[in-house]
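Running this now, will post back.
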Amino acid sequence: MEIAVTQARKIFAELLNRVVYGGEEVVLTRHGKTVAGIVSADDLELLRQVRSARLDLTRADRPTADEGPRGIPEESPLSVAAQYRAPGTRPGFSR
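Update: finished.
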């Protein structure tokens, strides 16, 4: 079920009962965009397990101390290909 936050406030107890006893999921919207959801405690626990597993996988992929931020060794031959220059400035030109 999808419902606007303003309407959900008015019938929150009913929505909660539909989730807890009816197994429904409630999607809350604001200005037509999804902002939150009401789910059962079981579904919340599953979400927490998925997040935890995803974080564990992310940690396993982190670079080691001798690697740069993308896992490329620091002594890599790759170098910076561009450099930021403020608008109106040119190399070798000063005002």
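The radius of gyration is 25 Å. More later if anyone needs it.
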